[in-house]
Amino acid sequence: MLLGGLLLATAALAGCTATGAPSPSPTASASDVTGLPKGVQQATDVPTDVVNTPALRGSVEITECSAADGGWKAEGTAKNTGDAAKTYTITVFFTTDHGTVIGTGDTKVDVEPGKTEDWTVAAKLTPAPKTLCVLRGVG
Fold first, then answer.
1. What are the Cα distances from residue 47, in Å, to 43, 122, 124, 125, 129?
2. Residue pair 76/66 in contact by the 8 Å Cβ criterion
3. How far lies 50's CA from each of 17, 46, 61, 103, 118, in Å?
4. Which helix (H) or strand (E) holds 30?
5. pLDDT of residue 18
6. Residue 106 pLDDT exceeds 90
7. For the chain, what are the domain ranges?
8. Euclidean distance between CA atoms 16 and 118, whole angstroms
9. Which numeric CATH code is attached to 57-138?
10. Which SS3 state, helix, strand or coil, does residue 94 take?
11. pTM here?
12. Which among 29, 60, 30, 61 is positioned nearest to 43, based on CA atoms?
């Protein structure tokens, strides 16, 4: 009985192993990503610990997402409806239309009470045909 169970477990594990699939090359570069347009590279230094306070996200918006000299930019506004000055940290990820991050950037903007300030985040990158600006974090 024990031997039968071991054989079933071994067979089940063997079914989970990919056969014939190429193993990733340890020297593959960012430009080797399948599915990206020619010249577009996946970002290799994407921040994982982004400041984000959900309650503040409604005070910040992207108003433009467009080409910039040598890359791409997001522009927007930050509004302070409170009684004290606020400094917003705004992080933007630039992605393909399929969600691959091809660039990142951040900025800080000081906003006085009752005021709205403009901000810009730009990144050096080769844009995809449909580059998107994603508001990744507001803190």
1. 10, 15, 16, 16, 24
2. no
3. 35, 10, 17, 14, 21
4. none
5. 33
6. yes
7. 57-138
8. 52
9. 2.60.40.10
10. strand
11. 0.74
12. 30
